[in-house]
Amino acid sequence: MLELRHVVKTYGKNVRAVDDVSVQLPAGVVGLVGHNGAGKTTLMQMIATISKPTSGQILLDDVDIVRQPEAMRARLGFLPQDFGVYPNLSALEFMQYFAALKGVRDPARIRRLLELVNLHDHAHKQAAGFSGGMRRRLGIAQALLNDPDVLIVDEPTAGLDPEERLRFRHLLSEIGFRKLVMVSTHIVSDIENMASRLAIMNNGRLVACDTPDSFVQRARGQVWSVTVAPQDYETLRAQVQVLQAQHHAQGITLRIAHPTPPLAEAVPAEPTLEEALMTQRYALRERMDAAA
């Protein structure tokens, strides 16, 4: 169990990159979702003991990892957003190097991990010739070397082609059966089929943490479908939050986020997870505007 208690990270005098975050995270895949600059990477760096919170506690199985960072580092696998490789090393040599750093002395584990990320046929090739997706896969292999209890990956599918993205999501989902996997992304499709919980960040605050089904359930009755004439579209768009617009011969079919039917002919639509999160974001923005 990972627990955060009133975690704050302040830069300078007044900039709160992470603002009073408290949450408990059991094993499973947790999708950390938010816009760029929401505080996702800062939060993950503190959990990974790369930086320290300004205040608050981070506990792993009741051990304060701010005071005892080695308690986390011995059980952590980490893949940062900007993961570099040593270009003159082969994939095998790269893994052997990191295995030595982590105290892993099982050559068979290195071979198994290279097979797991589909790099076994490239084990003796220099990383300088690897594509972005291959380097990303090598990064996840090194993160798994010490069989971590906590795996943190920041924007994991950056640079991956569609087939690699699918394979990567399946891999993280399988790991999440037994361990805590934290995946930071602003692309909802990366996590919608594998996350057991979603943690939503906005301006440094954790504004919601729940299951994907719960977010979709709350959005029911707030997403509508309606077809309008092209000349009416701009007027309507200025009045409501349009989630999607599809042009066709009969006009423009819209999916709209609104607490009540935006037009008399609008019908309820089953929200996708992405639409559910967008609906929550719009509601949060309206509450913040009203408070201001």
Structural class based on helices, strands and sheet pairing: alpha/beta
Low-confidence stretches: none
Report the C-alpha radius of gyration, rounded: 22 Å
Helix content: 25-40%
Give the key terms.
292 residues, six-stranded mixed β-sheet, ABC_transporter-like_ATP-bd, ATP-binding cassette domain-containing protein, ATP-binding, AAA+_ATPase
Write up what this structure looks like.
The protein has 292 residues and is α/β, with parallel strands linked by helices. Among the domains are: 1-75 and 148-159 and 171-210, P-loop containing nucleotide triphosphate hydrolases (Rossmann fold), CATH 3.40.50; 217-291, no CATH class. It has helices spanning 40-47, 70-73, 91-102, 107-116, 132-143, 162-175, 212-219, 230-237, 273-291; strands at 2-11, 15-25, 28-33, 55-60, 63-64, 76-79, 150-154, 180-185, 197-202, 205-210, 223-228, 241-248, 251-257, 267-268. The protein has a 6-stranded mixed β-sheet, with helices on both faces. A 4-stranded antiparallel β-sheet has the order 2-1-4-5, with helices on one face. The chain has a 4-stranded antiparallel β-sheet with strand order 12-13-11-14. This is ATP-binding cassette domain-containing protein. It comes from Duganella guangzhouensis. Residues 2-228 form the ABC transporter domain. Keywords: ATP-binding, Cell membrane, Membrane, Nucleotide-binding, Transport.
